[in-house]
Amino acid sequence: MSRAAATMGQGTHGGLSRTTSIDPEEVARFERLANAWWDPEGVFWPLHKLNRFRSSVLLQHLTESAGRNPLSGRTVLDIGCGGGLLSEEMARAGAQVTGIDVVGHNVEIARRHAEVSGLKINYLHSEAEQLVALGHRFDIVLNMEVVEHVNNLGGFLKACAQLVSPGGQMVISTINRTALAWLFAIFGAEYVLRWLPRGTHQWRKFVKPIELKDELENAGLQLNSQFGVRVNPFNRSFHLSRSLRINYMALYQRSPDA
Question: Which of the residues in the chain have pLDDT under 70?
Answer without folding.
Answer: 1-23, 26-35, 65-69
